[in-house]
Structure formats: C-alpha cells, structure tokens
C-alpha cells in the first residue's frame, strides 16, 4: 500500500510535480487550497457576492460547483447559483441537462436553463445541417458565450464561474502563442471587468485535469453515459494537449510554469479602462457595430433564405 506523505493513510493520488502521495482527506484539502488561492486572486469575494456557475454537464464544472458550495458554506453573504445552456444537440445535450439537474439538486443550488431555440430561434443541430452557414462548433461556441453572459447578467451575478482547469488554461496559453495572438492572452485575466460583461472566474485554473477528474470520481460528480458532443472540432487543441502532456511527463510542473508565465504577463499590463462599443442590434458589448452573435444569426438567416430560393 502506498501511504499518504502527510498522514500515512492509503494514498489515492500521486502528484509528480510536488512529489507527494495524498490520501482522500489531504487530496481534498490540497485541491480546495488551490481553488481558494485562485478565488482570492479575483478579489470578488472580499465582500458579499452572487456567483453563477456555468454547468456544462461535465466533471470539471460539477467539481467547481461542489468546491464553491463547500468553501462558502458558512458565508451568508455569498450566493451560489447554477446555469446551463441547451444548444440543441440531440443525442448529447438532453443527457447532460439531466445530469446537471441532478447535481444542482444534490448540492441544493438553484438552476436556470436557457436554450438556443428559445433565445435565438435556432439550434446547433440546425446550423450543422445547413450547407452555407458556419461550422457548428464556431456557431455554438460564440452563441453559448453570449447566452451565458446574458443569463448571468439577468440573474444579477457578480461573477460567472466556469470549470476550466489547469490543463485547459495551459493549452489556451500555448495555443495563443502558437497562433501569434498575444492580445488574446489578456482576455484570460481572472475576473476581468468590462462594462456589460459579467466577470469570469475559473476556480479550477490551478487544478490539473487529472486531479479534477479524480476529485469528481471520488465525490460522485463524474457524469456517466453522457458521451461527448458529436460536433467537437478541436484538432489543434488536441495536438497541443498531447504535446503538453508528453512534456509534463518528462518535465513535471510545465503546466504550472505556463500559468505562472501568463500571470507575469498580465501583471506587466494592468487592466485598462477599455470601453467596448455596443452592438447596434442586441446592445451587448462588442468591438464593432455588430457583435459576433448577431453577425452569425444574420449569416444563418441569409443562408436559410438562399436555400429556400434554391428549392
Ligand atoms: Fe458546442 Fe462545439 Fe462544445 Fe459541441 S463541442 S457543445 S458544438 S462548442
């Protein structure tokens, strides 16, 4: 039996980067410490706050919700809510919605569900079958972000928490460098404040994926039989993921180094008082006259009209 380096109980995980074997109790304490550290850096919880957690139906967002509930159990000035988006993906989303409802029920968190169909009059499945509009994943990603922000704003949330873990964050940093898009790095600033945008926080940004998965498994937060989205198209991210995992194996701590590097870059450029424009159609903050979501909806409407004319 491999023993915990802190208490001699049976270890359930080995952290190569720290050289520690940890038992369930010390593993949970370590994970919650990392979450607390990330939350402290956002400075959102110094006084009371209402936080909406975006449940995706996966293990990470369920773990994030569980941790937030646990950490703020005694803070009566902190309110935790959950929200889910139904993008309209048959064979995938209905199971994950059911799973999200179960988790929210179990953790006694009020859940709000919004759908593309009701909010935008179109689903990701419909976009996927149309021949002229966008790729389903591009459409879905943009519309999902918009709807999450709008819903969190309607809920009066001071922050929108997502389940992004250390691996996700390190991959994004590296991807942005590989694409030469350094400007995008600044969008990763935790709790970034922009008018009209609910500040985003990532409680698991210092928690490796393996640890988030182990936590979800040992706390019955791991979704079962939910499958994965049929449209997932992340070829480049997958390559980066494989490369980073290989590197982490031979150089433990690489993912943390990438995150530390990002934090140093963010420190060097303090948040600016950037005032975004407002979309002339929906009023959401954006960089030009029309926001990306309205452009996409317009493109799809155009594509629909074109194919109707062709018939
Ligand atoms: Fe939407 Fe793409 Fe995610 Fe599927 S993988 S839910 S299409 S963003």
Keywords:
single chain, 311 residues, alpha/beta, Rossmann fold, 5-stranded parallel sheet, two-stranded antiparallel ribbon, 11 helices, binds iron/sulfur cluster
Describe what this molecule looks like in 3D.
- The protein has one domain: 3-Layer(aba) Sandwich (Rossmann fold).
- It contains 11 helices and 9 strands.
- Strand 1 (13-15) and strand 2 form a beta hairpin.
- The mean pLDDT is 91.
- The protein is globular.
- The chain is 48% helix and 11% strand.
- The strands form 3 sheets. Strands 5-4-3-6-7 form a 5-stranded parallel beta sheet, sandwiched between helices.
- It is an alpha/beta fold.
- Helix 2 (59-71) crosses helix 8 (209-218), helix 7 (166-178) crosses helix 9 and helix 7 (166-178) packs across helix 10.
- It has helices spanning 24-42, 59-71, 93-106, 116-120, 124-129, 136-154, 166-178, 209-218, 235-250, 254-268, 292-310, and strands spanning 13-15, 20-22, 49-54, 78-86, 111-115, 159-161, 200-201, 277-278, 285-286.
- The termini are far apart.
- The chain binds iron/sulfur cluster.
- Iron/sulfur cluster binds next to helix 6.
Class, according to the CATH hierarchy? Alpha Beta
| Helical run tally | 11
First-residue to last-residue Cα separation: 69 Å
CATH architecture label? 3-Layer(aba) Sandwich
Oligomeric form? single chain
CATH-assigned fold name: Rossmann fold
CATH superfamily: HUPs
Q: What does the average pLDDT come to? A: 91
Bound molecules: iron/sulfur cluster
Lateral strand order in the biggest sheet = 5-4-3-6-7
Q: Regions with pLDDT < 50 over 5+ consecutive residues? A: none
Radius of gyration: 20 Å
Helix content: 40-55%
């Amino acid at each position: 039996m491999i023993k915990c380096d802190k208490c001699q109980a049976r270890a359930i995980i080995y952290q190569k980067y720290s050289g520690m074997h940890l038992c369930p109790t010390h593993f949970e304490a370590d994970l919650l410490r990392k979450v607390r550290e990330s939350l402290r850096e956002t400075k959102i919880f110094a006084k009371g706050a209402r936080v909406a957690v975006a449940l995706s139906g996966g293990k990470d967002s369920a773990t994030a919700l569980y941790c937030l509930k646990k950490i703020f159990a005694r803070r009566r000035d902190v309110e935790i809510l959950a929200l889910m988006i139904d993008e309209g993906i048959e064979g995938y989303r209905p199971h994950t919605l059911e799973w999200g409802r179960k988790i929210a029920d179990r953790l006694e968190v009020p859940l709000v569900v919004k759908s593309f169909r009701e909010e935008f009059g179109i689903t990701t499945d419909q976009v996927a079958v149309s021949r002229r509009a966008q790729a389903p994943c591009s459409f879905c990603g943009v519309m999902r972000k918009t709807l999450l922000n709008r819903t969190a704003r309607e809920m009066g949330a001071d922050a929108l928490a997502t389940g992004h873990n250390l691996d996700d964050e390190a991959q994004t940093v590296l991807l942005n460098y590989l694409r030469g898009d350094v400007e995008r790095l600044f969008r990763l600033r935790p709790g970034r404040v922009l008018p009209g945008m609910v500040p985003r926080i990532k409680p698991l940004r210092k928690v490796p994926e393996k640890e988030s998965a182990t936590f979800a498994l040992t706390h019955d937060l791991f979704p079962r039989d939910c499958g994965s989205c049929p449209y997932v198209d992340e070829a480049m991210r997958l390559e980066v993921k494989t490369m980073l995992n290989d590197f982490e194996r031979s150089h433990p701590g690489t993912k943390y180094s990438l995150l530390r590097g990002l934090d140093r870059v963010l420190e060097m450029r303090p948040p600016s008082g950037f005032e975004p424009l407002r979309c002339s159609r929906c009023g959401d903050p954006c960089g030009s006259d029309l926001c990306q979501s309205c452009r996409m909806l317009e493109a799809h409407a155009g594509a629909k009209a074109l194919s109707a004319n062709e018939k």
